[in-house]
Design goal:
By secondary structure, the protein is of the alpha/beta class. The chain contains 10 helices and 12 strands. It has 2 domains: about 190 residues, DHBP synthase, CATH 3.90.870; about 90 residues, Threonylcarbamoyl-AMP synthase, C-terminal domain (Rossmann fold). It is about 30% helix and about 15% strand. Helix 1 packs across helix 5.
Length: about 325
C-alpha cells in the first residue's frame, strides 16, 4: 500500500471531482453529496440509472442530523453500529440534492469505519455520496486493483486502502416506514437490529406497504454479476450430481476442504475460503468472482452456502443476484 496523498484526494473532491475510496464493505466512488453536478458525474461514470439512489457517508450522527430527521431508533442503532456497515433510510432534509436520492423523500446514510475514508471525511468536512466503485450491475470491488480493472481507462484516481475487511455491501435498513424493514441483507443481521431497537424488523419480501413503487429502486434482481454466466445450486451435493465436470466450466465452492470431491473433474475448481467460515467467504466472495471471470470459462457453477444466521443471508443474496442462468 502506498503512502496516501490525502490533500490530492481531498482537493479533487472539494473541486467537484470523483475519486474511488476504500471502505470496510467495498470500494466506493465518492463525491460531495451536496454538489448535484459532482453527483451527476458519479452516475455517468458508473452508467447507473438515475432511478437508483446513492448512499451518503458521514462521520457521525451529528453530520447525519444535517441531512435527515433521525428518530430514536436511528440514535440507538448509530450508537451501536456506527462507524460500521449499517445504512439507515431516513426522511431527508431539503439540502440533499434530488439526484442523490433519485427523487425520493428519504436519504440513505451510513458512517464507514475504514480509517482512510474517515480521514477524507474529516479533511473535506463534507458528507460524501459513494456507490460501489464498479460499472453499473457488475461485481463490487474489494481492492484498488479490482476498481482499476473494472473501469479500465475511465478509472478515476483510487486511494488504495488494501483489501476491504468485510467484502460485502452494508445492510440497508429502512426506518422511514411504519415497521423497520431490511431492504438489503448485509453484515449486520435482522436479529442484531431487533435486539438494539427492541422491536420487530421485516425482511425485504415481507414489506407490508403495498401499492407504492419499489421501496429500494436500485435493488434490481440481476446485479453483482460477473461477465461469465453463473449457475447456482441449492447445495454442494446437488452441484456434485448436476454440474458438468468438463474443462470449459469453473466450479466455485465454499471451502478448500471440499476440493478432494472434485479430484476426477477436468473443470477448474476454486474456493471462497480455507475453512468454510462465512466471514471469510464474505470477504473473498467478490474477489473470487473477479478471478473466476478472468478464466473466461463457459459457465461458473456455485452452490449456495448451507448455513444460517449472521452474514450467510447476505452472501446467498449476492449469489442469487450474481446468477444469470
Ligand atoms: P450501492 O450504492 O451499490 O451500495 O447501492 C446502494 C443501494 O441503497 C441502492 O441500490 C438502493 O437500493 C439503496 N438506497 C439508497 N438510497 C435509498 C433510499 N432513499 N431508499 C431506499 N433505498 C435506497
Ligand atoms: Mg453497487
Amino acid at each position: 500500500m502506498q503512502k496516501a496523498n490525502f490533500s490530492f484526494y481531498t482537493n479533487t473532491l472539494l473541486d467537484g471531482g470523483v475519486v474511488a475510496l476504500p471502505t470496510e464493505t467495498v470500494y466506493g466512488l465518492a463525491c460531495l453529496a451536496l454538489n448535484a453536478d459532482a453527483v451527476d458525474k458519479v452516475f455517468r461514470l458508473k452508467g447507473r440509472p438515475a432511478s437508483n439512489p446513492l448512499i451518503v457517508h458521514v462521520l457521525d450522527l451529528d453530520q447525519a442530523n444535517g441531512l435527515s430527521y433521525p428518530d430514536e431508533m436511528c440514535s440507538l442503532l448509530s450508537k451501536r453500529f456506527w462507524p460500521g456497515p449499517l445504512t439507515l433510510i431516513l426522511p431527508k432534509k431539503k439540502v440533499v440534492p434530488d439526484n442523490v436520492t433519485a427523487g425520493l423523500d428519504t436519504v440513505a446514510i451510513r458512517s464507514p469505519s475504514h480509517p482512510l475514508f474517515r480521514k477524507v471525511l474529516q479533511l473535506t468536512g463534507e458528507p460524501l455520496a459513494a456507490p460501489s466503485a464498479n460499472p453499473y450491475s457488475k461485481v463490487s470491488p474489494t481492492s484498488a486493483e479490482e476498481v482499476i480493472t473494472s473501469f479500465g481507462n475511465t478509472c478515476p484516481p483510487v486511494l488504495d486502502g488494501g483489501k476491504s475487511e468485510i467484502g460485502l455491501e452494508s445492510t440497508v435498513l429502512d426506518l422511514s416506514c411504519q415497521t423497520p424493514t431490511i431492504l438489503r441483507p448485509g453484515p449486520i443481521s435482522k436479529t442484531e437490529v431487533e435486539k438494539v431497537i427492541g422491536r420487530e424488523v421485516l425482511n425485504p419480501n415481507e414489506t407490508i406497504e403495498t401499492g407504492s413503487p419499489s421501496k429500494s429502486p436500485g435493488l434490481s434482481v440481476k446485479h453483482y454479476a460477473p461477465e461469465t454466466p453463473v449457475r447456482l445450486y441449492p447445495s454442494l451435493k446437488e452441484l456434485l450430481s448436476l454440474a458438468p465436470s468438463s474443462s470449459e466450466n469453473l466450479i466455485l465452492i465454499p471451502s478448500k476442504k471440499s476440493l478432494p470431491l472434485f479430484d476426477s473433474y477436468s473443470a477448474a475448481v476454486m474456493y471462497f475460503s480455507e475453512t468454510g467460515d462465512p466471514v471469510e467467504i464474505g470477504r473473498n466472495l467478490y474477489t473470487s468472482l473477479h478471478k473466476g471471470d478472468l478464466l473466461k470459462k463457459k459457465i461458473i457453477h456455485i452452490p449456495l452456502i448451507e448455513k444460517t444466521g449472521g452474514i450467510v443471508e447476505a452472501i446467498n443474496d449476492r449469489l442469487r443476484r450474481a446468477s444469470t442462468i
